[in-house]
Amino acid sequence: MIQNEPVSEIMVKNIIALNREDDLESAEKLFNKYKIKHIPVVSADVVIGMLSYSDFLKTSIPETAEDPHNINSVVYNAFSIEQVMSKNIVCINSKTSIREAATILAKREFHALPVVDDGVLTGIVTTRDLLNYYIKQY
Fold this sequence. Notes:
Keywords: CBS domain. Residues 11-66, 85-138 form the CBS domain. This is Acetoin utilization protein AcuB. This protein has 138 residues and is α+β, with helices and mostly antiparallel strands. The protein has one domain (7-137): CBS-domain, CATH 3.10.580.10. It has helices at residues 24-34, 53-60, 73-78, 81-84, 98-108, 127-137, and strands at 18-19, 38-43, 46-52, 112-117, 120-126. A hairpin with a 2-residue loop joins strand 4 (112-117) and strand 5 (120-126). The termini are close together.
């Protein structure tokens, strides 16, 4: 295993992101289309939050819904992206070591870290990326 290998080696660079003006219906389409669980929320490429699929589900599925995949458009309009997203997020830069990223995810109980260089979102590292990296090592 390479010591201090940077997250730039494993981060996802083709970023799927939302803007604060997007709606929850757009978010659901992105989650489903790309089979992802975390979407950074940006304003002019600057990260302002993170929307996780689990947080999305908590606020968008009525408790009485029989089919959680058939969400009523009224529910979509009940909340904005800004109301649902996590705002106090931790970002790392592309030179952060993979080990340090794994440590942050483990200690803070996060599942994704936006990668920001010079104030601009350049990637995302998830627990899936880390697991795949460690699997390749052995």
